[in-house]
Amino acid sequence: MTASETRPLTATRQFPPGFLWGAATAAYQIEGAAAEDGRTPSIWDTFSHTPGKVFAGHTGDVAVDHYHRFRDDVRLMKELGLSAYRFSVSWSRVQPTGRGPAVQKGLDFYRALVDELLGAGIRPVLTLYHWDLPQELEDAGGWPERSTAERFGEYAAIVGGALGDRVERWTTLNEPWCSAFLGYASGNHAPGRTDPVAALRAAHHLNLGHGLAVQALRAALPPRAEVGVSLNLHQVRPLTDAPEDLEAARRIDAVGNRVWLGPMLDGAYPEDLAADTARLTDWSFVQPADTATAHQPLDYVGINYYTPTVVSAAARGESGGGSDGGHGGGDFSPWAGAEDVVFHQPPGERTAMGWSVDASGLYDLLTRMARDYPELPLLITENGAAFDDEVAPDGTVHDPERIAYLHSHLDAVHRAVGSGVDVRGYFLWSLLDNFEWAYGYAKRFGAVHVDYDTLARTPKASARWYADLARTGVLPELPGA
Ligand code: IFM
After folding, report:
1. pLDDT at site 478
2. Can you give the pLDDT at residue 320?
3. How many domains, the chain?
4. Range of the domain at 436
5. Is residue 206 part of a domain?
6. Is 324 in the pocket of ligand 1 (CB under 6 A)?
7. Is the peptide bond before 191 cis (omega within 30 degrees of 0)?
8. Is the CB of 382 under 6 A from ligand 1?
9. Strand 309-313 to 341-344 pairing
């Protein structure tokens, strides 16, 4: 992206020329074909096949069968006027054991997908890792072990070498917070471990793996390629101004946000994080050059935002309750560094995930990032909402709540751009209804409805609304407002 692509805004809610209008997905959530063409299990295959881990025993074995239907799905994207599409590569489809040579058929699938996108005039944005670690690497210790970061750098080199001639935008990790803390501390995500020290070790090796992957990509890609990372930063708000609540907010900011921003963007872990977690670990797994490795120049940071994070100190007798950081609400067990903190869902409108609808959190997050990192372009790499959509007798899907959600959040993005924040694009989560991790297929985030019996795709009203926006670049008044 060049500076000339961002021009002053007009009085209407017009987005800058060149603004990317996209939608996002992830491999395990949509591809299916779990055992085809050499793909081996990832931690999510193992986890979803473990009784009691995923709602109603749902798995990604078939998902929405995108592996076989990607051409139709790209056609749909074109009909919806998308200018970009963000997808992830399944590591164990490309490198089944997580090490060694690549499987050509795995690479061929992504090459065919990218060619289809380019042929439709849609820019591919490729995420290397969206939570589906090859099971063999987990068996060797997973992200808590340094070797996983090293393997990730090698995998990045393979994918960069294979697709660098046609993909211009790259994301190393998607939401490493979820990989580390939901995967290894709360255990609500694969691999389902509940070891806070393992979670902190995983966080570090994700940071290191990110740096190694950026280095590998820079070596493999042409200079025009852009490389970034997608973070689900927590817009942390204290429940009250009481000092204990302010302290709880500081702690969550450290272990939710600055644990990534520090090494990746500043080249060091925040000192308060080490102090907060001192009773768990002395962080001696951080080797001297690691933070320099994690601190690679980036072309953008991807922001994934769903809901703010409201916290208070645990009152006497109240135990800390975990949050899924925008990934489940409710009953999550405490995660490392957040043991004495209580998470709250403010009153008011909620999505089907139980997450409160509050677009001001997105505005605040964007302006914070612009203040702290003024030179760094931002992309909204995920934003959207699950609702209990129903197909009407005439076959249409009316989802006014989703339109209202998208409208308010895009208004927040527009206001941020108007305040000088360099936001270059927006990716709606998600293109299609899909496998929503521990919730299986029970939560629908798609702009396009999927009938899970027939796998038929039906664009919801929100998809049509978004298509108009993508075509005009102007955010209209909300219908009925
Ligand atoms: O479905 C997920 C996605 O995989 C990562 N970010 C949040 C989405 C909604 O929970």
Report:
1. 86
2. 61
3. 1
4. 3-472
5. yes
6. no
7. yes
8. yes
9. antiparallel
Q: What is the pLDDT of residue 4?
A: 38
CB distance 253 to ligand 1 below 6 Å: no
Residue 138, ligand 1, Cβ within 6 A: no
Measured in degrees and rounded to the nearest 5, phi and psi for residue 211 equal -60, -45
Euclidean distance between the first and final Cα of the chain, in Å? 35
pLDDT value, residue 185: 94
Q: Which atom of ligand 1 is nearest to the CA of 29?
A: 4
Distance CA 372, CA 253 (A): 14
* Amino acid identity for residue 277 in this structure: T
Structure tokens at 472: 């005009």
**Is ligand 1 within 6 A of the CB of residue 132?**
no
Give the whole-angstrom CA distance, residue 12 versus residue 7: 14
* Residue ID of nearest Cα to ligand 1 atom 10: 327
| pLDDT averaged per 10 residues, the chain (length 481) | 44 92 99 98 98 98 99 98 98 97 97 98 98 98 98 98 98 98 95 96 99 99 98 96 96 96 98 95 98 98 97 70 51 66 91 96 98 98 98 97 98 98 98 98 98 98 98 90 65
| Beta pairing partners, 448 | 432, 459
Q: How is residue 38 written in tokens?
A: 């050499």
Task: Give distance in angstroms: CA of 436 to centre of ligand 1.
Answer: 7
Query: Nearest-CA neighbor of 325 among 340, 303, 310, 346?
Result: 310
Catalytic residue among 175, 226, 339, 401: 175
Ligand 1 centroid to residue 327 C-alpha, Å: 7
R_g over Cα of the chain: 21
pLDDT at 390: 94
- Token pair 């939608």 is found at 23
Q: Which atom of ligand 1 is least distant from the CA of 326?
A: 10
Q: What is the pTM of this model?
A: 0.96
Residue 117 forms part of a structural domain: yes
382 has catalytic annotation: yes
| Within-domain flag for 481 | no
In terms of Cβ atoms closer than 10 Å to its own Cβ (0-12, 13-18, 19+), residue 215 is middle
For 454-479, b/e burial (b = at least 16 CB within 10 A) is ebebbbbbbbebbbebbeebebeeee
Residue 201 lies in a domain: yes
Q: What is the domain-level CATH number for residue 11?
A: 3.20.20.80
- Does any ligand 1 atom lie closer than 6 A to the CB of residue 364? no
Nearest atom in ligand 1 to the alpha carbon of residue 304 is: 6
